[in-house]
Description:
Layout: E1 19-23, E2 36-40, H1 41-50, H2 53-59, H3 63-68, H4 70-79
Antiparallel strand pairs: 1-2
Amino acid sequence: MSDPICPLCRRPIPPEAKQSQHHLTPKLKGGKGSPTVLLHHICHQEIHATLTEAELARDFATIEALRDHPRLAKFITWIAKRPPGFQSKVPGRRRKR
């Protein structure tokens, strides 16, 4: 059986890689019980370092919208060059709120 694919970066998620579930609509914004997607943990961290819960709920509740965000698109280009199990601190500074 092949490894699941991270829908954000489109790299495989091997069993030893840190991974997490992302609620497409944040739980705090009415997304409890809403669909989730399995992501690399580093991809999930970058989403939450980039966008507020309100922004996620309002404008970024789909993988396509997340992939189109300028900072996330730059992150995806960067992470695509790393091996599937790569883990580090989130690159770049946390967005000011």
